[in-house]
Write the structure tokens for this entry.
Amino acid sequence: IVNPAELDVARREDVCNQCHLQGKHVIRRFGREFFDFRPGDRLEDVFVVLTGEDRLDDQGRHQVVSHVEQMRSSRCYIGSDQAMGCTSCHDPHFQPAPEQQAAWYRDKCFRCHDDQSCSLPVENQRQAPASGSCVHCHMAPLGTTNVPHTAQTDHRILREALKPVESQAVSGPPVGEALAVFDGAEARLPSWEVARARGISKMTEAWNRRDERLSQEARRLLVPEGVDARDLTAVINALGADETALAELGSSYLVNGEIEPARVVWRRLLDLNPDHEVALGGLAVIELQRRNVRVARIHLERLLQLLPEDPEWHARMAEMAWAAGKRDEALQAAERVLELDPTKLELREWLVAAYRSTGNAERSRHHGQLVEQMRKRAGSGR
């Protein structure tokens, strides 16, 4: 058992950071697994964490677990010569009662400050609504977070009391620009490991946006230094048993419409790991495009064994079966998709027509009624 109090500051903080640091991307180092971290390790022993200036999600809401990045941007942290950490203010084994919190955290602040540090007269500090709470003014809740019904305390510890936090928020760097490696770990990690992590993170963004330019940037980072990126065999050999890098490399080719290189890469990946979900899914999509139904079915059936609750692959199976004239199988797969995700309006609309074409008026009418209900709800904004 490791006592965090006996660790140096960086290792002690990483015990907390393993959960409370989200970052923009968290990439496993080659050969490591997510649960390899043990108290006493540095986070960088297992992960490369890429961060932006402030963590906002796609809806502009603050990420609840970005406390670490916020705290490190605060003057309190910087002025402590980076000795300030989570346990400077928090006891993982004790949570003060609501009526005790103002005094509890004020005591933590007064270890460095005193009541004269506040620009307000003491009598004003004690007036409602602050009622003597440093946190009320200097760590005001962020109004929007990515967890419903919650408000995140702003760990930037702003000096200007009650200044609207939202107006000060900045999003991270635009997609494709270099993100920072957390805690300066870039200087301590092998350069190829950092390039690999950046390539994986860029490819994640490229895939989500189907961004060809970004996927090409990702590929340049994924290809090991000194290897000719035009020589696919050399690239695959250089990546060796790096399943994650191979998976992302295949994705980069697919995003750019380079089907055959993607197919070659993912087949190599299946040689390494016959159950690799990215390779199975990518190859299933490619073989469906090539109208190679027999091979596509093999990949889809294996995916459904591995991921029986994933509606995407049931939908692909429905698409394939319908094209092959296997109406009952297609309808059964489509119904399974809706069991897993009842919100798929387009699939319900397809089922209305599909059941009508097979003469099943009752099921066509059933889905038609649900389609109308979903459209009304969408129109009312509910």
